[in-house]
């Protein structure tokens, strides 16, 4: 039997070596390009990643620089410049605005600040006692770290002071410092039409300066009876500002008051010893040893008279003082320095105090509702010191102060009696006083002349009014 013809494999060799058929060139070329493309993609990805990492590093670096730029100068720089500023700590800043019903504990809790830090701050003593009575609208600036630990606290505690607290190595340190103030000289002029307070308000004076004006002239002018329509005043005074904002009017520097055809001038002067007072241009003290009206009154209900019909008793008798009508409880002040020689109940006078002054002068205060505590016979009192309160004890038809002035035991009219002068400027200080008072009076005269010129110009243009 003949075996069928078998076809030999083309990849077979008698030597036993396998013959590997040659791969097509196209397949090799494709793989080469794929590998090249992969390498390019990997390279681009690596470059993008490297740029991203560099950008992140740059961002962190910028943040650090910004924080560093917020730091105050270092201690050596501050010492060289003479500055005592404390470097501000780096941290998170928050401003808390106080609302009605808020407390420091409530504000700390609302802002996730450490209650333990607040306790440490409140234990610092007097400086931080102000934080116990925070007021609506008050702003409190706090710097803290991410855990709520307080690094610093700053707030304005009143119109003149700020409180700063910082975390130091030994614990929290508090400091209260004054807000820098500037003082400017201001001028006001007024003409009385209805009342002094109305004229002063129209001139731009606050009640504090108006009361100073009344007090300065209280020894020479009876503001209840002497003031008339057309009387005028001019005032040089201080205006106090903080951080560029006016906060109050200060002391009167010089003033003039014209009433009844007479002009009274006063000048403020501080001598080299530091004593301050108000004087006339010739150096006499405007302050008298006694004041004519020792109570804030609404009207004089009865004047001095040797023949007055007593409204209670119904017959004529001498009224040896002046009655100043005022509400019950109005403070009564000592008319001058002296010593109490009587305190108690005195017949129709009711509750009464008598004070002995120098030079043979004495004063009597009657119908008091009560005496001020701590005063007794022998007590020394000073002018303007409260000694009691208005009432209607004794023989009286309404609440008022009955006030008497006696000279060597003889009753005199408190409104007209010549009052003893207080001490004038010492002779050794007169040259200094004349120099300072001359400058103030020249300034007052200058602004008065400017006002008159302005008023004349306005009138020529058909306008009327008072320049201020």
Report on the architecture of this protein.
- This protein has 468 residues and is of the alpha+beta class.
- The protein is built from 7 helices and 22 strands.
- It has helices at residues 25-69, 75-81, 104-110, 115-122, 196-202, 207-217, 430-460, and strands spanning 92-97, 139-144, 150-156, 161-168, 171-178, 181-191, 232-242, 245-259, 262-270, 276-279, 299-302, 305-309, 316-319, 322-325, 331-333, 338-345, 351-356, 361-371, 380-381, 386-390, 400-407, 410-412.
- Strands 11, 14, 15, 16, 17, 18, 19, 20, 21 and 22 form a 10-stranded antiparallel β-sheet that branches. A 5-stranded antiparallel β-sheet has the order 1-2-3-4-5, with helices on one face.
- The N and C termini lie far apart (151 Å).
- Residues 1-22, 52-86, 303-317 and 463-468 have low confidence and may be disordered.
Features:
22 strands, 468 residues, ten-stranded antiparallel beta sheet, disordered C terminus, elongated, alpha+beta
């Amino acid at each position: 039997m003949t075996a069928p013809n078998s076809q030999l494999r083309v990849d077979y060799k008698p030597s036993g070596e396998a013959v590997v058929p040659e791969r097509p060139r196209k397949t090799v070329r494709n793989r080469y390009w794929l590998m090249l493309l992969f390498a390019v993609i990997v390279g681009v990805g690596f470059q993008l990643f490297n740029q991203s990492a560099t950008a992140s590093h740059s961002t962190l670096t910028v943040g650090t620089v910004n924080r560093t730029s917020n730091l105050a100068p270092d201690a050596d720089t501050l010492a060289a410049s003479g500055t005592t500023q404390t470097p501000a700590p780096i941290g998170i800043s928050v401003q808390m605005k106080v609302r009605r019903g808020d407390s420091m504990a409530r504000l700390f809790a609302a802002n996730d600040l450490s209650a333990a830090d607040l306790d440490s701050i409140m234990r610092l003593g007097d400086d931080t006692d102000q934080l116990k009575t925070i007021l609506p609208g008050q702003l409190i600036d706090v710097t803290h770290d991410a855990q709520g630990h307080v690094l610093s606290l700053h707030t304005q505690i009143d119109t003149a002071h700020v409180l700063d607290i910082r975390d130091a190595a030994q614990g929290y340190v508090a400091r209260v410092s004054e807000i820098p103030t500037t003082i400017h000289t201001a001028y006001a002029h007024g003409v009385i039409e209805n009342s002094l307070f109305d004229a002063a308000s129209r001139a731009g004076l606050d009640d504090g300066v108006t009361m100073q004006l009344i007090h300065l002239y209280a020894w020479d002018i009876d503001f209840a009876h002497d003031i008339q329509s057309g009387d005028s005043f001019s005032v040089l005074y201080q205006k106090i500002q903080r951080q560029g904002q006016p906060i109050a009017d200060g002391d009167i520097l010089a003033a003039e008051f014209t009433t009844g055809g007479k002009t009274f001038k006063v000048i403020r002067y501080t001598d080299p010893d530091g004593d301050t007072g108000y004087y006339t241009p010739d150096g006499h003290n405007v302050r008298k040893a006694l004041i004519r009206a020792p109570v804030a009154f609404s009207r004089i209900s009865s004047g001095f008279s040797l023949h007055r019909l007593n409204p209670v008793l119904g017959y004529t008798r001498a009224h040896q003082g002046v009655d100043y009508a005022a509400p019950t409880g109005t403070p009564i002040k000592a008319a001058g320095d002296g010593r109490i020689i009587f305190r108690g109940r005195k017949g129709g006078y009711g509750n009464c105090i008598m004070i002995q002054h120098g030079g043979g002068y004495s004063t009597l205060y009657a119908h008091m509702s009560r005496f001020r505590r701590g005063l007794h016979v022998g007590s020394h009192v000073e002018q303007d010191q409260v000694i009691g309160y208005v009432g209607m004890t004794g023989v009286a038809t309404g609440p008022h102060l009955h006030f008497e002035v006696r000279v060597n035991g003889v009753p005199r009219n408190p409104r007209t009696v010549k009052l003893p002068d207080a001490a004038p400027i010492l002779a050794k200080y007169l040259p200094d006083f004349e120099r300072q008072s001359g400058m103030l009076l020249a300034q007052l005269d200058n602004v008065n002349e400017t006002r008159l010129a302005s008023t004349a110009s306005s009138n020529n243009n058909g306008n009327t009014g008072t320049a201020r």
